[in-house]
Design brief:
The chain is an all-alpha fold. 66% of the residues lie in helices and 0% in strands.
Length: 168
């Protein structure tokens, strides 16, 4: 069995997506360094992947740009966090243009379940107290209320959509 060099960027992708989910859950922040790391690893991933055409790469870049533009519009209206926009855009790179509908649908499904959990009495156990002195993250959002760490949903969907095709 030969070593597949594409497994290294894929392992980095998984680790950074988990890091994004954990930091968003705990601090309601997705670090720019995590998003930048995912983007750089994607470039390595494209280089090590066999059978990727320039047209498919351009199509994926166009989809990621479209997700970024729509996400920025939602962010400007206070409907989504900036870190969520960046994470979803880079997750689109990893999933590819063909898997974008699955990524978006699964993100919405997991995010909906997460939001429902935050509407139950479990909310107090799910939200960590803000010990870092940061302002309440809900202050900038149109809906107010309890902020939902949507990076968890994005990361979960990205992992589910992106990794299985390499082992199937």
């Amino acid at each position: 069995m030969a070593f597949d060099p594409n497994l290294l960027p894929l392992a980095g992708f998984a680790a950074l997506m988990v890091a994004a989910a954990v930091t968003d859950f705990v601090r309601l922040v997705i670090p720019n360094t995590v998003v930048a790391g995912l983007a750089l690893l994607w470039l390595l991933h494209i280089e090590t992947m066999r059978g990727t055409t320039p047209a498919a790469t351009l199509e994926t870049l166009a989809c990621a740009a479209a997700v970024l533009i729509v996400g920025l519009l939602l962010f400007a209206r206070g409907l989504i966090g900036g870190g969520d926009v960046k994470l979803l855009s880079v997750a689109t790179l990893w999933a590819g243009a063909g898997a974008l509908p699955s990524l978006l649908a699964l993100t919405g499904l997991v995010g909906g379940v997460l939001a429902l959990l935050f509407m139950t009495p479990l909310r107090s156990r799910l939200t960590a107290p803000r010990l870092d002195g940061a302002p309440d993250a809900s202050a900038g959002f149109a809906g107010g209320g309890t902020p939902i760490p949507y990076g968890v949903a994005i990361a979960a969907a990205a992992l589910i959509v992106t990794i299985p095709p390499y082992f199937g």
